[in-house]
């Protein structure tokens, strides 16, 4: 059984978070700990990483 969730303001939150982090790191590579491994990501991939982490976090609670 697949549960569907909608988060109307989630993308706004993620976008704001990405913007804040980008401002902090000033386009330098940063290290983000994911649930799977620790890798070095450039800020270009930051949004994807945050979204993946959200997906993993939500999936753990299903």
Quick overview:
This protein is α+β, with helices and mostly antiparallel strands. Helix content is 50%, strand content 13%. It contains 2 helices and 2 strands, in the order αββα.
Describe this structure in words.
By secondary structure, this protein is an alpha+beta fold. It is 50% helix and 13% strand. The protein is built from two helices and two strands; from the N terminus they run H-E-E-H. The protein has helices at residues 10-25, 46-60, and strands at 30-33, 38-41. It has a two-stranded antiparallel ribbon with strand order 1-2. Helix 1 crosses helix 2. It is globular, with a radius of gyration of 13 Å. It starts with 9 loop residues before the first helix and ends with a helix.
Fold topology:
Layout lengths: L9 H16 L4 E4 L4 E4 L4 H15 L2
Helix pairs in contact: 1-2
Helix-strand sequence: HEEH
Instruction: Give the amount of beta strand, in percent.
Output: 5-15%
Total number of β-strand segments? 2
Radius of gyration: 13 Å
- Low-pLDDT parts are none
Percent in helix: 40-55%
Query: Numbering strands along the chain, what is their spatial order in the largest sheet?
Result: 1-2
Mean pLDDT: 64
Major sheet description = 2 strands, antiparallel
Helix/strand class: alpha+beta
Q: What is the CA-CA span between the terminal residues? A: 10 Å
Taken from the alpha-carbon principal axes, the silhouette is: globular
Query: Count of helices?
Result: 2
List keywords for this structure.
62 residues, alpha+beta, two-stranded antiparallel ribbon, globular
